[in-house]
Amino acid sequence: MSSIYNYWYPPEPTYAERALAFIQYPFTLVGNPLKVFTSIPALSFLIIPAFSSYTTTLQLFFFYLTWATLILSNPPLKVELYGTLAIRLLFYVVPSLFFLAFDSAVPSAAASIKQYGDIALPMSEEQGGVRGRWWKIGLISIGNVLLGVLIQGAIAYFFVEVLHIRSALKITTSLPMPWGIVIDLFRGLFLRELLTYVLHRYVLHNSSSPFASYHETWYHSLTAPYSIAANYDHPLAYIFHVFLPTYLPAALCHFHLLTYHMYLAIISIEETFAYSGYNVLPSGFILGGIARRQERHLMGDTNGNYGCYGICDFVAGSSVGTSVVEDVQDEADKKDPSGKAKKKVKAVGKKGKKRLE
Predict the structure, then answer these.
(1) Higher pLDDT residue, 318 or 237?
(2) 3-state secondary structure of 323
(3) Which residues, 6+ apart, have CB-to-CB distance to 300 below 8 Å?
(4) Residue-wise pLDDT tens digits, 179-237
(5) Largest alpha-carbon pair distance within the chain?
(6) How far from 323 is each of 156, 289, 307, 311, CA to CA, in Å?
(7) Whole-number Å distance between alpha carbons of 350 and 357
(8) Alpha-carbon distance 116 to 119, whole Å?
(9) Helix (H, G, I), strand (E, B) or coil at 33
(10) By C-alpha distance, which of 323, 287, 284, 299 is closest to 229?
């Protein structure tokens, strides 16, 4: 009778069994890499329109079926981590490796579109040449990306399996509403800017902080930025500089998993292009401004440009070089020869200066 009872009502796992499962989980997670890519229903949403003539309603219906099937047929924790890993691979690691290959294969062409020319090439003489440390930087950067995914998995596992509470992210068969996605993305990116500024300035650039020396000797040892170096830093400094500002907004706002993956894709694309060193970018105003501010912080004055987008630096008066308002002004000059937009932007800049005074 006891065996039958145990079959229908298995006992709760002990803490030792839970600890063993937690240790084994990362290895089972990467046991089948193909599942990583099939775990993103957004891929089907992108592929269906390219190879069919279905209407938007049918495409959304197929997308919902794919998502619901995925959630119902797989553990939520596995879906979260597979999807997160796939997003980072597709939108950061793979494009960064492509840019690295391009810079190495045709250095003369790459240097012609680099903001700082030859010095910004990963295998330039200033960076040690072909036998330099570019490959170590790449491995550490990719390793930090994987570290972030593992920390996220550990947090989710602790919440769900140990504390028996809901995950930090919302994983349900229902889909988020479009307006809700827009609001969450806006909140997430704004909080990321704020957290990046605070942690970067007061933890990683504070002489009394134990992490400041790590950040200085690792991240600021880079001669010039390039895409695969976007996540290069001491692992502890990386947690404060990249992981926490990225993950905490999603956890605090309890993002839907799909919204989180969109949010993570935006950040991954931003990292890829902003650290590429190229002066020809898809968006000269947004990505170009971010890239130039990151370059000035890394290569010039480290006492400024702590945030991602320059908003907090502008408010706090710690902008180095052009501020985010000046970037808007330059873009307005290009697209509005009459100067009407320029006057409006100048007015905003004056108001901001008055508040600082």
Answers:
(1) 237
(2) coil
(3) 320, 321
(4) 999 999 999 999 999 999 999 999 999 989 999 999 999 999 988 889 999 999 999 99
(5) 88
(6) 38, 9, 11, 8
(7) 11
(8) 6
(9) coil
(10) 299
What is the model's pTM? 0.79
Q: Which residues does residue 278 pair with via DSSP β-bridges, in sequence order?
A: 114
Query: How confident is the model at residue 285, as a pLDDT?
Result: 55
Distance CA 178, CA 186 (A): 13
Instruction: Give which of 152, 144, 241, 252 is closest to 198, Cα–Cα.
Output: 241
Burial label, 146 (beta-carbon count in 10 A; 0-12, 13-18, 19+): middle
* Residue in 308, 283, 271, 280 with CA at minimum distance from that of residue 293: 308
- Quote the tokens at residue 136: 């170590």
The position carrying tokens 């002066």 is: 279
What pLDDT sits at residue 180?
93
| Cβ-contact 240, 218 below 8 angstroms | no
Per residue in 147-188, pLDDT tens? Answer: 999 999 999 999 988 888 888 999 998 889 989 999 999 999
The 3-state secondary structure of 305-316, one letter per residue: CCCCCCHHHHHH
CA distance 289 to 357: 25
Residue with tokens 């084994």: 24
Confidence (pLDDT) at 64: 78
Q: How many residues does the chain have?
A: 357
What pLDDT is stored for residue 3 in this prediction? 53
Residues 6+ positions from 289 with CB-CB distance below 8 Å: 309, 310, 322, 324, 327
Q: Contact 298/274 with Cβ under 8 angstroms?
A: no
The answer to which of 50-54, 114-118, 151-155 has the lowest mean pLDDT is 50-54
The amino acid occupying position 15 is: Y
- Rounded average pLDDT over 91-98: 95
Question: What stretch of H or E contains 55?
Answer: none
Residues 6 or more apart in contact with residue 187 via CB below 8 angstroms: 249, 253
| Alpha-carbon span 124 to 104, nearest angstrom | 9
